[in-house]
């Protein structure tokens, strides 16, 4: 009897220790510095600022609880950055849709005649994946991807290939955040089949890929047209990025033959882009016309090669970035234009006809600023600096307002900031770009890696902000916190730049500079 009593006491103590440990572990998995409730007021404002035109999987009334459970936290002294950060999560949530085959993500909330089943459009799928990879619950993005690739009686949706795609690249970069190798390896046959389909239908005998503008989601461009089969920097860069990703996924699976096959495809594609799409006279990657010869216009799509780290890290390629600080190039009062301002055909294709002849499109801004962040992190160049990056991020933030309220739409006038389809219901909450991914990986500078190291390289210029904090970032099952406190008086956890995992500091620096540390 006494032995049994002692056994019960020991068991109870062990259970208590376990429960205490579990409670401690749960606590450690939350944000280390910021408090979720401090940002609820943004959602309350968004919910009441206008009518809820369409409800999908997560209505406005559930938006705060959903965001509390799923999104990173961000605090900055420049409150418009902070407001748009939460606004973009709030709008992204609107596009998550439950279908008979699982979760999906829409581009427009309103029905479009040219969409696939469930009102799906594949044009911005790469953007959807890059942005949604930071959601804490993987079921949403898992479902979105599976719906696209297997939601048509086990086969891809009929219009998956209606638009150029960088999905394999996006999914590999999603893996870098989640660490879920089983999901990405399971998707490998789907991604290989998709790549082969593009080779079959869009690759020329010389190995280059062609695309009509509208199938790039870029209807009225200076370089081409809706029916012209030009060789564009878009699809040729996408195919390079996809081949590199497939090779990495194949190696994760242990399929060395497939990995080598796609590494070779990627390298050949890289050589083709350098040899054929670089206009040495204009120092820019440009579209080549169907009949031959350059289109002789610099367009924002010429920055896309850097989105995939394709260009060689040498001159003359760095020179292309001189155009983002040139008012005759792409620098306009309300953002980065889609064609160079100096061109005689700039903004000549008629208002409100999906103009990619110079108007500012968040789709393109996302690609260019992601490419620019890669430039700072992976290239040795002196054409642009952190001030230039911040300038364009600042313009991007400022552009995302309409009539004094947060707004994201299709495209806007580069001089006035007026949303050219702002009063059309189709444009409201347009899910065609990224923003929060660039706050995380660009401005704050968390760079997910495939090894056991944590890399942070903020692109906030010295002296711009005295403090900022990115918290509650779910990374491979842990919670990452990054904060900058110039004086140490904001967060009372020390001066400088600090990186924490589950509340424990793993690295710090007195300055805003690159940090690489073991996880």
Automatic annotation (TrEMBL):
Protein's UniProt keywords contain Hydrolase: yes
Domain Glycoside hydrolase family 65 C-terminal stretches: 450-506
UniProt entry keywords in alphabetical sequence: Hydrolase, Signal
Endpoints of the signal sequence: 1-23
The keyword Signal is annotated on this UniProt entry: yes
Matches recorded under InterPro entries: 6-hairpin_glycosidase_sf (IPR008928), 6hp_glycosidase-like_sf (IPR012341), Glyco_hydro_65_C (IPR005194), MGH1-like_GH (IPR054491)
Domain called Mannosylglycerate hydrolase MGH1-like glycoside hydrolase: residue spans: 117-433
GO molecular function: hydrolase activity
Protein name: Glycosyl hydrolase family 65 protein
Organism per entry: Echinicola jeungdonensis
């Amino acid at each position: 009897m006494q032995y049994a009593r002692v056994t019960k006491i020991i068991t109870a103590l062990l259970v208590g220790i376990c429960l205490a440990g579990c409670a401690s572990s749960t606590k450690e998995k939350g944000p280390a510095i910021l408090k979720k409730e401090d940002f609820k007021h943004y959602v309350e404002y968004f919910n009441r600022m206008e009518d809820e035109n369409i409800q999908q999987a997560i209505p406005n009334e559930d938006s705060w609880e959903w965001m509390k459970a799923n999104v990173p936290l961000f605090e900055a002294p420049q409150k418009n950055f902070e407001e748009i950060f939460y606004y973009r999560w709030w709008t992204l949530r609107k596009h998550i849709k439950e279908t008979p085959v699982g979760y999906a993500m829409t581009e427009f909330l309103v029905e479009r005649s040219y969409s696939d089943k469930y009102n799906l459009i594949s044009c911005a799928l790469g953007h959807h994946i890059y942005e949604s990879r930071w959601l804490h619950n993987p079921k949403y993005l898992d479902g979105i991807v599976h719906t696209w690739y297997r939601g048509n009686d086990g086969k891809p949706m009929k219009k998956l290939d209606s638009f150029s795609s960088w999905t394999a690249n996006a999914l590999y970069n999603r893996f870098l955040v989640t660490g879920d190798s089983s999901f990405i390896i399971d998707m490998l046959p789907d991604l290989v089949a998709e790549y082969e389909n593009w080779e079959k239908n869009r690759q020329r005998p010389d190995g280059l890929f062609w695309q009509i503008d509208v199938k790039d989601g870029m209807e009225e461009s200076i370089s081409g047209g809706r029916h012209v089969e030009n060789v564009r920097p878009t699809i040729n860069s996408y195919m390079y990025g996809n081949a590199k990703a497939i090779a990495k996924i194949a190696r994760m699976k242990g399929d060395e033959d497939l990995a080598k096959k796609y590494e070779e495809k990627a390298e050949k594609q890289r050589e083709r882009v350098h040899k054929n799409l670089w206009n040495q006279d204009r120092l820019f990657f440009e579209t080549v016309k169907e009949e031959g010869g350059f289109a002789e216009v610099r367009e924002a799509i010429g920055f896309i090669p850097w989105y995939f780290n394709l260009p060689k890290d040498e001159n003359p390629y760095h020179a292309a970035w001189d155009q983002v600080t040139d008012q005759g190039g792409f620098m306009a009062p309300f953002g980065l234009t889609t064609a160079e301002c100096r061109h005689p055909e700039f903004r000549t294709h008629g208002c409100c006809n999906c103009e990619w002849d110079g108007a500012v499109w968040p789709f393109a801004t996302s690609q260019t600023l992601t490419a620019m962040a890669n430039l700072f992190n992976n290239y040795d160049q002196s054409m642009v600096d952190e001030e230039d990056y911040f300038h364009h991020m600042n313009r991007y933030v400022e552009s995302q307002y309409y009539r004094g309220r947060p707004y994201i739409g299709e495209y806007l006038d580069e001089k006035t900031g007026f949303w050219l389809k702002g009063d059309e219901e189709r444009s409201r909450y347009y899910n065609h770009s990224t923003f929060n991914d660039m706050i995380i990986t660009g401005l704050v500078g968390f760079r997910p890696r495939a090894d056991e190291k944590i890399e942070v390289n903020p692109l906030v210029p010295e002296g711009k902000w005295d403090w900022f904090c990115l918290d509650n970032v779910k990374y491979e099952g842990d919670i990452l916190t990054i904060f900058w406190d110039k004086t140490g008086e904001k967060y009372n956890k020390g001066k400088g730049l600090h990186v924490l995992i589950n509340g424990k500091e793993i690295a710090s620096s007195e300055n805003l500079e690159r940090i690489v540390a073991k996880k």
